[in-house]
Design goal:
- Helices cover 35% and strands 5% of the residues.
- It has five helices and two strands.
- The longest helix has 10 residues.
- The N terminus is likely disordered.
Amino acid sequence: SLQSVLTISTPPRRPDLGERKLAEWRKKGGGDLEPVLASGAVALLDAQWIISHAEAGGVLAHRQALPKEAFLSFADLVEATGEYDLWLPVGALSYPWLTKDHPDPLGANLARV
């Protein structure tokens, strides 16, 4: 099976999301992602957390074993969408599990990221 590294979180509807930011998110195509985000099938990892975790010598466990602070909310994602950016702040990385019990037991794939 494949281990998704950067995935998307369930987007709760938040009234405090600025209408301008939400409009910018949707203008850049974010609205097309909202159904998959709302499904909860995937969760978005914070790139800064991934970098810090790798620098600390960590390994990337399966999604269910990651700490809550590893993930971004939908509001975080919309907020990160810059007015002058040409794209959405979303990336994806997928790789095969290296063993049947752990996707990256020695952190080799995480180190490459």
